[in-house]
Write a structure and sequence with these properties.
Blueprint (H helix, E strand, L loop, with lengths): L3 H5 L9 H16 L6 H28 L4 H6 L3 E5 H5 L8 E7 L5 H13 L4 E7 L6 E6 L2 E9 L15 H4 L4 H19 L3 H17 L9 H14 L5 H12 L53 H20 L3 H5 L7 H4 L2 E8 L3 H22 L5 E11 L7 E10 L5 H19 L13 E6 L21 H4 L20 H17 L6 H10 L3 H8 L28 H9 L1
Parallel strand pairs: 2-5
Antiparallel strand pairs: 1-2, 3-4, 4-5, 6-8, 6-9, 7-8
Helix pairs in contact: 3-6, 8-10, 9-10, 9-11, 11-12, 15-16
């Protein structure tokens, strides 16, 4: 594993230069232009909504306690907490962001009480709309709008007789050992958010970096279904740990530089793991299944979990490509306008020729919302199966598009299919049918399916068949592929001397040009003649031992990174901006 002192110590504590501060100001101005910050009025409204929900939670706990023979004073003292998580707790919420909150109650309040009594209280509040309870979800939740503010309210029961809001620390690891599994999962969100804010030195710069990355990931189509909100926050927090004094523009550069060549599956962790007293934590040495995670980004709160367990070979490849793209842009950025290129929307619907369209529909909005969520959670099985298809690459676009003017709630999802070698229509149909049938069997696991939730439809489309409400006809012009010269990237990654490096394949025209150049040179040197004569001369001048040696094919070796010892104590950096000691640590892992 990676050396601990490399993983958790700062790599560079340099203060930002005047130029860095100037570039960061350009970046922050751009975030304001994108309307990523809530107004003071919107923030005050959210705080007021949380205050009302907290008061409602206190009333809920008192009501249930009285029904269980508690005295008036005892019921009043039982107490409860309402804590937030996600983007709101991290301070990176936008004008339209939802609020993730957890209602924490003492041990005598059950989940059934929450979904019966508290749900009824919400039903009777005129400010509550679009109320929907999901008590049997992996993380039980009540979803609703309170005065037009989107709320996801979770439930957690602690093994305590009363909840003291002033004294209770939800980061206390021992609390988790005696919680039920559903409460552990509910508390994981606020615990991870609190740990993150404690583990970064400059919260303001962390928030600016995270706002940039969230905007970039959403525009490039790598947010949901790829790393989610918590995983992106953890990746940002790690960069802030390594560069605690860096300005946002430098943090953004380091982010793309480091993750564009991070040697996965080396995990990203913010702190050393806490073993606890029996809860399962992410550990590939003791849990065999954890060894197969491709891009582990580990939560810091006990019990530690992999926030990117759903990453596949396909999504990891797409992420790496996007990290490289981001690196090239931030390296060249000099003005506010230059930064805009980083946030350019994805070219997904014009870059590829072949697509899969997954259509989900249901009779009602509630049925459609639940069905779309389940089908989306199972799409990774379709990707995993089709990853095995030779000469093909997949590119999912993690967004559901609502179909306008449909007779019932309907949405579509797209996966691009890029063939590196031409496939016949017959072979492609066989492949398509096999893997879509396997995907359909996964959907049978949804035990709460209703009659109104229709069978998903998966269709093959060409670019020209993409619906107009997604891609207008005037925008269907394909991207012009760059020539070989413009596609070359400059690297300073050093390989071992005995490694066999991958070579670019010459085109037929290039091989013909090379032969013509060699023939012209031979004629100029007086070495012209028939091929038989030249062949005879060559044969006569070559010994049998030399022929035997030349006939041997060089043994192919996997390229290995070579890291050199730095002469002084300062960190050397390669062209990608990765400190030498960090490169050495990942190479040894």
């Amino acid at each position: 594993m990676m050396q601990d002192n490399i993983m958790y110590e700062p790599l560079d504590t340099s203060l930002p230069s005047d130029e860095d501060l100037k570039m960061s100001s350009y970046l922050e101005e751009l975030l304001v232009d994108y309307n990523l910050y809530p107004t003071a009025e919107e923030t005050n409204k959210r705080e007021l909504v949380l205050s009302k929900l907290h008061e409602m939670a206190r009333k809920f706990v008192k009501t249930v306690s009285l029904s269980k023979s508690f005295s008036e004073q005892q019921a009043e003292n039982c107490g409860c907490m309402l804590v937030t998580s996600g983007s709101f707790r991290l301070g990176v919420h936008g004008p339209d962001s939802d609020i993730d909150a957890v209602c924490i109650v003492p041990s005598h309040i059950s989940k059934e009480d929450f979904f019966r009594v508290f749900f009824e209280m919400l039903q009777n509040d005129p400010l509550v709309t679009e109320l929907n309870a999901v008590p049997d979800a992996h993380v039980p939740v009540i979803k609703f709008l309170y005065d037009q503010v989107d709320i996801d309210l979770l439930f957690a029961c602690l093994p305590l007789s009363r909840i003291d809001e002033e004294e209770l620390d939800i980061l206390e690891e021992s609390l988790m050992d005696h919680c039920d599994p559903a409460s552990q999962r509910s508390l994981n969100g606020p615990r991870v958010a609190n740990e993150m804010l404690q583990l970064v030195e400059n919260e303001s710069n962390f928030r600016t970096l995270l706002r940039c990355i969230k905007k970039w990931a959403k525009e490039r189509g790598i947010y949901l279904g790829f790393p989610g909100g918590i995983a992106w926050a953890l990746l940002c927090a790690k960069i802030c740990q390594w560069y605690p004094n860096a300005s946002p523009n430098v943090l953004l550069q380091r982010m793309f530089h480091i993750y564009s060549q991070w040697q996965w599956p080396n995990p990203i962790t913010l702190k050393r793991k806490y073993q606890g007293s029996g809860l399962k934590i992410w550990d590939p040495q003791t849990n065999p299944a954890d060894k197969y995670h491709l891009m582990p980004v580990i939560t810091p709160a006990y019990p530690s979990m992999n926030s990117t367990y759903n990453i596949s070979k396909t999504t990891l490849r797409v992420l790496t490509e996007e990290f490289y793209r981001g690196k090239e842009i931030v390296d060249a950025a000099k003005t506010k306008e230059d930064w805009q290129h980083l946030f350019a929307p994805s070219e997904f619907f014009v870059r590829y020729k072949n697509y899969l369209q997954v259509t989900v529909s249901a009779a009602t909005e509630d049925e459609h919302r639940a069905w779309e969520g389940f089908v989306g959670s199972r799409l990774r099985f379709l990707l995993k199966g089709m990853e095995q298809v030779p000469h093909s690459q997949l590119r999912p676009f993690p967004k559901w598009y609502r179909v306008p003017d449909a007779s019932e709630p309907t949405s579509v999802y797209y996966i691009a299919v890029n063939f590196t070698k031409k496939q016949s229509d017959e072979i492609w149909k066989v492949i398509f049918d096999n893997h879509t049938n396997e995907f359909s069997t996964q959907l049978l696991k949804y035990t709460d399916r209703t009659e109104g939730q229709r069978n998903p439809k998966i269709a093959q489309l060409k670019r020209s068949q993409i619906p107009k409400f997604i891609l207008p006809k005037e925008d269907r012009k394909p991207i012009v592929r760059r020539n070989n010269e413009s596609k070359k990237r400059k690297w300073r990654i050093v390989f071992d001397e005995d490694s066999t490096l991958p070579q670019h394949r010459e085109t037929k025209r290039q091989r013909m040009d090379t032969k013509e150049d060699e023939s012209s040179k031979d004629l100029a040197d007086g070495k012209g003649g028939t091929s038989q004569e030249n062949g005879a001369e060559s044969s006569d001048s070559t010994s049998p031992d030399e022929k035997s040696e030349a006939a041997k094919k060089p043994e192919k070796k996997k390229p290995q990174f070579r890291t050199e010892e730095v002469e002084d104590e300062d960190d050397d950096e390669d062209m990608l901006g990765i400190p030498a000691r960090l490169r050495m640590a990942t190479a040894e892992a």
